[in-house]
């Protein structure tokens, strides 16, 4: 692939709400995708709850497992946007399942003997009307970096609503300026890093 080809993005939505239910995570990811599009990086969003992603730590768990198709989309992307709501102070159970399925990539290498997820960028978006965004982001960053993704500077965006209230992100009349500014920085840095890694790949063993 040429270094000036358009960047490809995949956004994984780990909301527990199946389509077509309104999802704050879906809104946040749509905003991240829009921000990335301003830097020549375009793609799509996949809502994990709509797919039959089996529990496990193998590439293919068989018996109708739809993770292999999602995995192919991840491998085809330059940038992964990992989105999750916060439930009881933690990332969703589906976010944890995605992390567990990505564990299989630790033993996968490319033609040069490098981990197969090297040269790909990952960012995180978290929403919730309770505390926990920083912890969820930190946990997800660690997992994504472990399996080979590179995290850009300020590669996380989030919104936490007022504790013990019922207002969700998609209920807001407008996006808070700090969230919009953070999302814009995330997109700018992610697109820049993805182009740097495309032009100068990590060295082989």
UniProtKB/TrEMBL annotation:
Pfam families: FMN_red
Domain of life: Bacteria
InterPro entries membership: Flavoprotein-like_sf (IPR029039), FMN_Rdtase-like_dom (IPR005025)
Gene3D superfamilies for the chain: 3.40.50.360
NADPH-dependent FMN reductase-like domain mapped to chain residues: 8-152
MF-aspect GO terms: oxidoreductase activity
SUPFAM superfamilies: Flavoproteins (SSF52218)
Identification of the protein by name: Flavodoxin family protein
Taxonomic source organism: Microbacterium radiodurans
């Amino acid at each position: 692939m040429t270094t000036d080809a358009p960047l490809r993005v995949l956004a994984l939505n780990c909301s527990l709400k199946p389509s077509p239910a309104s999802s704050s995570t879906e809104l946040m990811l749509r905003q991240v995708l829009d921000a990335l599009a301003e830097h020549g990086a375009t793609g799509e969003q996949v809502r994990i709850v709509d797919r039959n992603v089996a529990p496990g730590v193998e590439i293919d768990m068989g018996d109708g497992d739809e993770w292999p198709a999602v995995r192919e989309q991840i491998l085809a992307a330059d940038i992964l946007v990992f989105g999750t709501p916060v439930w009881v102070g933690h990332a969703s159970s589906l976010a944890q399942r995605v992390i567990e399925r990505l564990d299989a990539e630790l033993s996968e290498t490319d033609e040069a003997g490098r981990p197969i997820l090297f040269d790909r960028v990952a960012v995180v978006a978290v929403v919730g009307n309770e505390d926990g965004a920083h912890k969820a982001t930190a946990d997800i960053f660690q997992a994504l970096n472990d399996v080979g993704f590179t995290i850009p500077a300020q590669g996380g965006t989030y919104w936490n609503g007022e504790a013990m209230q019922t207002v969700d992100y998609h209920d807001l009349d407008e996006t808070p300026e700090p969230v919009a500014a953070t999302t814009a920085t995330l997109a700018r840095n992610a697109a820049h890093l993805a182009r740097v890694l495309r032009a100068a790949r990590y060295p082989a063993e």
